[in-house]
Specification:
This protein is an alpha/beta fold. It has 10 helices and 8 strands.
């Protein structure tokens, strides 16, 4: 009997559908893993359905999403690898901090409690949701122009617009509000157990040109782990924006993740 494959859970962030991981699933399956990419709670199975039913994900909180992905992790016979992008990256950090998962990769992870930098580009990227307090309980969509700034700023207009047409969906605004006030909230859902020294290894990945989660934000996130004895590393990709998991350069990022997992014996 062959050796059991290590499961990998891919967790997307806001404004992208779970199927945006399809290329990663194929690459990781070929590399010998057992990958899955479940949507957020209530997320329809297709991009088209998600666009037609924004209320299906409205008002989903960080803890709602975390509980959902913990159930996914518990469904495997062995502890999975967790790989997330944007708010999916924050969820990876949160779960790994609670010893869910054998290793984690957080790609352009959303701001956790304790991270102080708030560059103007990051604020502008979140404004479509944050500008209206009534959005707290709603699902919010980006326009093509807003997607270009938040995700596709390092791409041509053509590629950014193509990604928008293919993957963009409405997403719950609540996690953005929660992250925005995390440093002023005692029991914030954006808090991560960064001091955990016995968790699995964590890789943070940053796109140096990212507007939504600027490089300075990810570097500040790394500093939050300074009191942990667990492996915590950062890899930066020059010239890459928030689209780095879905644009034409995604295989370079995926290969870097596979190399890091191999180097850590996973």
């Amino acid at each position: 009997m062959g050796q059991a494959r290590t499961p990998v859970i891919f967790i997307h962030g806001l404004w992208l559908h779970a199927t945006s991981w399809d290329g990663w699933l194929e690459k990781f399956r070929t590399a010998g893993y057992e990958p899955v990419a479940p949507g957020w709670p209530g997320e329809p199975d297709t991009v088209e359905e998600a666009r037609q039913l924004p209320e299906a994900v409205a008002n989903t909180s960080i803890d709602d999403a975390a509980a959902h992905f913990i159930k996914v992790a518990d469904s495997f016979d062995t502890s999975p690898v967790l790989i997330g992008h944007s708010f999916g990256g924050l969820l990876v950090e949160k779960l790994l901090g609670h010893d869910v998962g054998r290793a984690g990769v957080a790609i352009d992870p959303a701001q956790i409690k304790g991270v102080l930098p708030l560059p103007l580009a990051q604020l502008r990227s979140a404004l479509p949701a944050l500008r209206n307090p009534a959005n707290l309980r709603r699902a919010v969509s980006l326009t093509e122009k807003q997607f270009r700034f938040a995700f596709g700023n390092a791409l041509t207009d053509e590629e950014s617009n193509e990604l928008f047409a293919r993957w963009a969906i409405p997403s719950p605004a609540r996690p953005l509000f929660q992250a925005a006030v995390a440093n002023f909230t005692l029991h914030s859902e954006a808090k991560v157990a960064t001091e955990n020294g016995t968790r699995g290894p964590l890789l943070l990945i940053s796109g140096r040109e990212d507007h939504t989660v600027p490089d300075v934000t990810t570097r500040s996130t790394l500093k939050q782990y300074r009191h942990s004895a667990a492996v915590t590393e950062l890899q930066q990709f020059a010239g890459r924006g928030h689209s780095l998991t879905v644009d034409s350069g995604w295989p370079e990022v995926a290969d870097a993740v596979l190399s890091w997992l191999k180097a850590n014996g996973i």
